[in-house]
## 1
Amino acid sequence: MTSPQVILFAVSPIIVLFMTRLLWHRVQHNRKYKLPPQIPGLPIFGNSFQIPALQQGPWAKDLADKYGEITWVFLNSSRVVRDLMERRAAIYCSRPDFPMTQGIMSRESRIVLIPYNDRWRVLRKIMHNILSSRQHDVFMPFQDLESKNLLWDYLETPDRWWSANGRYANSVIMSVIFGRRSVLDEPNQIELFETAEEFLEEQQPGKNIVDGYPVLQKLPRSLQWWRPRGNRIYEKTRNVYLREVKDLEERMKAGTQKQCFATDFLATKEIKKMGEDQKLFVFGTLLEAGSDTSRVSIGQIIAGAATYPDWVKRARENLDAVCGSNADRLPQWEDRPKLNYISAVVKEGFRWRPNTAEIGAPTMLIKDDEYEGYRFPAGTVFTWNAWAIALSPKEYEDPERFWPERFLNGEEENALKGHWGFGPGRRVCVGWKVGEMNVWIAIARLIYCFDFEQIPGKPIDTMTIPQITKHKAQFEVKVTPRTPAHAKLIRKECADAVKVRY
Ligand code: HEM
């Protein structure tokens, strides 16, 4: 026999044994559990190679239309999301292992990917203490100041509206966390958005085979082709966070730093128990999650204004009744109880195209469970199919239309009710209140002061607005002051806001 034949002869009993065991396990597994219909895929790799790299929302929506309320991991209706991820959140909302995005790129320290454990609980509490609704008063003055700066930027450089959104959202969170403002085109801010987008890109299901099949992390390190890329992203991300913390420490030494979350946090006993990476990722997560999501959400509503202008008219009736029809004054926080149409607009913005998490965020079941005849094993990965639910006619009348009236139901101020823009259950966005307020004051003022129109020959395709843009605007749109009086109002009320420095 030739040597390959010898090797084959020698290993074939092992292969047969391995295959038999695999089959036996599969039979036992199928007897014990009953899973929803599976989408046909490849042996071993399942559906990994069918998932598009970007804009998975429309892809997952098609699956939902075809396969019904539950597919392999996708929960495709609000009813089942509520039943499992909210009512049974204690066992449904942990996180699976992500050896690339959490292990290598985040050194196990990004809170959004930490499974249910004591570390997650400690971190969630720290974040909750800064971001909860009790903290309104801390954020409101910054949101007021920064949204005035936002209007100024829209007036002066309308074609840079997207960068202005990014600066605005970043500066609010930066002010609260690091006690300093950010300016347009700041290098560290640009890098922060880059690393946030790199994380999102790497997190897309199917992008990293090891995150779908964590067993691959057992390969020798030299064979893990994803590892050098992961290390490179980790280093870049860590440096962005580290630069902020170092600058802060310098200002503290020089006695020029005002009190902020970071100065308080650096003095707590919790931080003494944290490793360096964990400490940096607490700061970094706040900056990353606090900046990217709000700029995207404001962009969505602008797309809604340009493509469905009928609601803008009605929003302005509400705004003009409160602030004057001739640009008398800007909308203020105190006007909120009278501007319920704007609150409905913001909710509709979160529902309409849930671009922050197009196919939800994967969670892991931690205990075997039964639901409506299905038996799920512990370890099953679930997600709420955000795009499919938001655009289902079974959930919403005329779902593709931007139609704030659907939320004019007396619950405009209950920002989480009626959509899944912030996720369900125990993993619901811990910064939802701050995010909602960021969007509310920005949109109230932008819609009062500016017209948003599609550019002839460049219609906005609202079904493919990208979530990852690499510094470019999400779409092109024409931004003009509503009237000369509105432009004058911005000059009068916002010029000082741009000059404030701390
Ligand atoms: C418009 C704004 C925002 C939107 C649409 C949004 C959306 C989301 C979504 C969909 C999740 C995942 C929920 C899940 O896994 O079920 C999430 C998680 C999270 N968000 Fe937000 N978010 C926003 C603003 C913010 C802000 C301002 C902060 C902080 C400054 C923040 C911090 C976080 C954190 C730390 C998590 C992880 C929570 C955990 O895993 O326990 N978010 N957000």
## 2
Amino acid sequence: MNLSGFDDCWYGKWFKTRIFGKIHVFVPSTEGAKRILANDFVEFNKGYLKSMADAAGHKSLFAVPHESHTRIRRLLSDTFSMTSLSIFVKKFDNMLCERLKKLEADGKSFRVIDFTLKLTFDAMCDLLMSITDDSLLQQLGRDCKDVSSAIISFPVMIPGTRYYKGMKARKRFLETFKEMISKRRSGKEYHEDFLQSMLQRDSYPPSEKLDDSEIMDNLIVLLLSGQASSSAAMMWSVKYLDENRQVQDRLREEQLSINRNKPDGASLSLEDLNKMSYCLKVAKETLRMSNAVLWFPSCCT
Ligand code: HEM
């Protein structure tokens, strides 16, 4: 088979092609994904595209070499402590309940993916930077969409192209982040969130903190990664639950029984999540059956 003049080959489900002088292999199988993901930095390196590194940033997890990757990943995950997660579970539950009530009151039909994309994006903005202002969320949401589209694009700065729009949106992201960082440093603003915990490390040695470009580039990565996969997973679970009424009924019963044992009006807690054994199975089965992460590049060593 030949697409657009490239020399392409199919090996069962696997597909090999040559783009810009490099061999690319698409591996759409569970065994392939397991082999690649279990051999990070051994048989495979993180190998991201130029457009991905330009749009997310050269100091982001999407672009840095192995040594920085390990340090950045450690420092990023340190900030997702049990305490911050537990606050976040409560916030997320309240946010979701409010929005579902509004949808119910409106009584109109809606696209599930639009709902989950907005929900996960707003939730990530709150978790990372305590952004709750509607107009800022809308502006950042539009910019996030443009940066996402630029992630896989031809990296040429021609007005009108996806890459061009994405790079302009990235610039606006950075301006917003810089302003927020300077307000926090000058003490004009303080919030208990991811950004604050990063800035609290200002006096630490370089190996124990992220510099400003690392913070900003990785804020973009967390926004993109946090939004895309979780919103797709939620959308797919709604579809599968609609098609499997027995599973839906059993899942609802688990939720209701957890709710019955809580005081009236109490929010969801981390402990409640740990009781949702059937829900966890539904989430895992959804991820097994669906395409929450459409593709992910790695480079063979
Ligand atoms: C259903 C939800 C999710 C799924 C299925 C998912 C899946 C994945 C997969 C398969 C990868 C590639 C892993 C690798 O190459 O080692 C990845 C990477 C990543 N994900 Fe997620 N993810 C989800 C949610 C999230 C959320 C909520 C966040 C942010 C808070 C996030 C942040 C990231 C980041 C930063 C990376 C890049 C990691 C790196 O380069 O080391 N993901 N995700």
